[in-house]
């Protein structure tokens, strides 16, 4: 585990951006039952955490994509983070909606950019990867060269890993599910029994906790 991954997980737990409740699962909009809930928008309310994530993103962009000429945020969760990173790096910023607006100019991509620009996409959370990769496809269709995506956190689902591989888009994250679970267990935030529950959920999240026969 690298220091950034551990510290990111620590902050997310401390400010309750991530909540672990193996005994009292959450229900996602998809209908999935889950022992974990992640809301990285919470990080924006804490200046120290917000700055840490901004700086970690910026350092990763400098390290992996020194020739980036544009930063793009995925709406809505990563608009603010993307703008902070772009400001830190003194690069232009745009953001990508889930679809084109049905009024006005009908834009899906907001902000000024030019075809051929090398863009790094900033995202707050990776679950199945569908909406995140939708932004990647929109940028490519608009003529941008997508260098890769960096997100705050990923659940590490194989479905997402396979989807990014199929799209030929590199994905890097500041922290991930495995780091979070290990850190939460080491700190006493969860029990060893909870750890097994959390690992079992990630193996088959779509059916975990559902009544038999569904």
Write the layout of secondary structure elements.
Blueprint: H1 3-14, E1 18-20, E2 26-27, E3 33-34, E4 36-38, H2 47-64, E5 70-74, H3 79-89, E6 93-96, E7 109-110, E8 118-126, H4 130-141, E9 145-154, H5 158-167, E10 171-176, H6 177-186, H7 192-203
Parallel strand pairs: 5-6, 5-8, 8-9, 9-10
Antiparallel strand pairs: 1-4, 2-3, 6-7
**Beta-strand content:** 15-25%
Mean pLDDT: 93
The main sheet orders its strands as 7-6-5-8-9-10
How many independent structural domains? 1
Number of helices: 7
Question: Could you tell me the radius of gyration in angstroms?
Answer: 18 Å
Summing up helix and strand content along with how strands pair, one would put the structural category as alpha/beta
Tally of strands: 10
Largest sheet: 6 strands, mixed
């Amino acid at each position: 585990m690298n220091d950034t991954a551990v510290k990111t997980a620590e902050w997310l737990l401390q400010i309750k951006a991530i909540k672990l409740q193996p005994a009292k699962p959450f229900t996602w909009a998809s209908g999935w039952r889950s022992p974990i809930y992640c809301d990285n928008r919470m990080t924006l309310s804490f200046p120290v955490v917000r700055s840490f994530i901004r700086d970690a993103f910026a350092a990763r962009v400098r390290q992996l994509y020194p020739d980036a000429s544009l930063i793009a945020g995925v709406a809505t969760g990563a608009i603010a983070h993307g703008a902070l990173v772009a400001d830190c790096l003194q690069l232009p910023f745009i953001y990508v909606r889930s679809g084109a607006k049905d009024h006005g100019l009908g834009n899906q991509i907001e902000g000024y950019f030019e075809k051929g620009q090398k863009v790094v996409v900033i995202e707050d959370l990776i679950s199945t990867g569908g909406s995140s990769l939708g932004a990647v496809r929109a940028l490519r269709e608009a003529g941008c060269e997508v260098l890769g995506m960096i997100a705050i956190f990923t659940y590490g689902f194989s479905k997402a890993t396979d989807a990014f591989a199929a799209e030929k888009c590199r994905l890097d994250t500041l922290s991930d599910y495995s780091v979070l679970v290990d850190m939460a267990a080491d700190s006493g935030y969860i029990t060893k029994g909870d750890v097994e529950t959390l690992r079992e959920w990630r193996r088959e999240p779509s059916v975990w906790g559902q009544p038999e026969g569904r």
